[in-house]
Amino acid sequence: MTLGFFEHRAEGVVQSFGGTTLDVAVPSLGFVRELREQSHVRVCMLIDDGLCELVLTRVIGRDGVLHGQLVGAPTYVQRRGTPRARVAVPAAAVWSETTSGGSGRLEGRTRDLSVGGAVVETDLPATELPPVGTTVLLTLWLSDGATPVTGAAEVLQVWDGGARLRAVHTPPAVAARIAAFVAAAST
After folding, report:
1. pLDDT bucket at 23, cuts 50 / 70 / 90
2. Rounded to an integer, what distance in angstroms lies between the CA atom of residue 19 and that of residue 11?
3. Which element (helix H / strand E) includes 37?
4. How far is it, in rounded angstroms, from Cα 39 to Cα 58?
5. Could you tell me the CATH superfamily of domain 84-186?
6. Contact at 8 Å (CB) between 116 and 166?
């Protein structure tokens, strides 16, 4: 997470969050000497697919930990260029193995979806998923009753049971259907 006070910036790790209070371990508390009782510190935390921005007041620094009280509600800021929805739709991806000359297939369900990509959950271990950087042909069965949508996607990350994919060269008709589906799922 990043903390900011005027021109000062510091990185930190959340130690505890109690609804209205936040404790952050900060390696360098040098800028805390400049804080006054009513100073406000802006805090940005990376979460899932975006940023959560918080403002703290009554900030006290001691023992390498910054203690503060929240001012107002946290603000969520989407980092992605396209809206994303947490939806589970059937998904399949196929790819060619460039080193072995074989091919692979995964089947699963999306955990989240956007025009820009998806997270697909599967029962396969990471060793049976396409390597990072591989281009796959991704097919999604949207629950809008129409035919499945298919497009190319690049594998960004794999783990036991899932993969994060980024859409590449998505045909406009496919992008429009996914965008409409995500918009409807987000309401």
Report:
1. confident
2. 21
3. none
4. 7
5. predicted glycosyltransferase like domains (2.40.10.220)
6. yes
DSSP code, position 133? T
Domain ranges across the chain:
2-78, 84-186
Q: What is the spatial distance between Cα 140 and Cα 125, in angstroms, rounded to a whole number? A: 21
Q: Residues 37, 38, 41, CA angle at the centre, nearest 5°?
A: 105
Under 8 Å between Cβ of 42 and 55 = yes
Contact by Cβ (8 Å): 42, 54 = yes
Q: Decide which of 133 and 45 is more confident.
A: 133
Model-wide pTM > 0.85: no
pLDDT of residue 25: 79
Per-residue pLDDT reduced to its tens digit, 25-37: 777 666 666 666 6
What long-range pairs does 99-103 form, CB within 8 A, spacing at least 24? none
Question: Per residue in 145-174, pLDDT tens?
Answer: 779 999 999 998 898 899 999 999 888 999
